[in-house]
Amino acid sequence: MRGKACVTAGALHRKSINFAENMKTDEMSDTSKNTRPVEIELLAPARDAATAKAAIDHGADAVYMGAMTHGARRQAANSLADIAEVAAYAHLFGARLYVTVNTIIYEDELSDVERLVHDLWRVGVDALIVQDMALFGMNLPPIPLHASTQCDIRTPRKAAMLQAAGFSQLVLPRELSLNEIAEFKAATSVPLEAFVHGALCVSYSGDCQASFALTGRSANRGECAQICRYSFDLEDASGRKLLTGKHLLSLRDMNRLDSLGEMMDAGVRSFKIEGRLKDEGYVKNVVAAYNRELDRLCKASDGRFRRSSVGVSVPAFTPLLTKSFNRGFTSYFLHDNRKVGKGELASFDTPKWVGEEIGVVTGQPDRRTLMVKTTETLHNGDGIGYFDSERRFAGFRINRVDGNRLLTATDVNLKRGTKLYRNADAEWERTLGRSTGCRRIGVDMILDFLPDGRLVLDIVEPTEGTAISVTAGCVPDEARTPQEEPRRRTLAKLGDTIYVLRNLTDRLGMKFVPASVLADLRRRGVETLTQCRLASRKMELRRKPDHKALEELVSDTFTRHDNVANSMAEKFYRSLRPDIGVIPRAIETAGAGSDRRVMQTRYCLRRELGACLRTPQGSSLPRELFLRTSAGTRLRLEFDCANCRMNVLMSKS
What we know:
The chain has 653 residues and is an alpha/beta fold. Helix content is 24%, strand content 26%. It is built from 17 helices and 30 strands.
């Protein structure tokens, strides 16, 4: 069993605690199969402490949030006090807190990062999500390290190398198919983490220098300018415009809710939701949706899988992914990257949230009144969007709904037949703004007498295997009426705790015990149970490196795309391969040199436009294509058809 029995305030006695009967955990129920269930986790983002707690309440097994510095989302940094608060709350449910320290580290920051890691370990952080190999040269506490997606783990060999280095969990690239994930699983033994929902980076993570090259803001330093959301003109070599003002690199958002079972079978163990800049309502809704589906899959797995934390989350709403910000959905390349067809990945018209189609305009009596035909109930304060005649997206707020008349907050001028979309449902937002869910841990209680006459209450939390016993020196009287139900009502009053009573075994018979005595037992019992569970929490420590395997797996060639930004990271690689030649520094510290590539992606614009060079339709577009920004910067597109990749390069012209 996970955890251990905990004895406090009285001895656990033979009659009260029968582990074979009372602790039917997943592990024990699976013993007959000689296997242990595989733990999986739902990993949720959090921009702050309130969002992190909401994620846990709505079913997350782990949350990840930014540290005070050096997180890859600079706007999502958190104080040490807030991080400590989240760690303590997560551990109540056996959930984990991961903190991101996943930027590249500059030379003069090495000692600061070392102190930061010690502070995070001290307040109870379970693991760090990191990118820079310099951490392996620091004097760190034994905190586990997870390899960020910024590590650009494109091959099973790279995954095996990072495992050998001592990483405890690996964040896979978003681009991988199910078959490729299975290959990574075969090459590793540590848990594999994969994104399942949220915004998509068009470039391989960690290998995008477009933001730095165009604006001086580095994505690898948490300052991404989101070049992929820009509008571009598509040009041929002569500068002739083929498309104008389209968001040609802006991908839809990922949604893999219907593929979680396949991902579990392929080897994914941590299911990650993207969105450390998203608001609390977004996190509540998305976490609740994925929590429900993972619970269903675990229940249907016949004991093969179980969740890594405890407690049941019951949201006060029905989660609907279409109600939260999205750019349209795609499962990306999960099922087969070479079979993704025309128009399946990108959202050319706008990088914004269009929303749900809700009807059409039927008339406009004046500039602030619209007559509409709608399939949905609209509310005062809803946000409505539409595309104008040039396919530009715009919108307005509803001041008041009067039947099929919408009174708008601003002037509008829409033609009859214009399609309307709702991207802000005021009633839904009010629902998510309230307290929308709770998480409770089921416990079993046994009420009995000890041989010396004292009253004893045993409380068992069966999933983790924690049990406690508290006693009271009470001399009960004989009761005139049955007491089982009144005693149950008193012991079940756990509303201000994280627990809920599942089963009560009452062995007191026709004895009368004052409600105040029972309430005191209950209060002391749950306090002791919580202390015991926290004290016996299983803490993971950093894995030891496998130096022999690491020396065989580490690359012998490096480019600036390996993001080596300091002497400590360089020393890490040289200690393994003394024969390594020059290790070029990252673009942020040494410039681009002759390498003009700023982005590499499995997404191919030609394929998205239906002009793949491997098909007869490839000739519908010129072979040489360029993107031009509104500021005039020109980017050349290079198509690597053999590997089904597209490169984006700074153009010389």
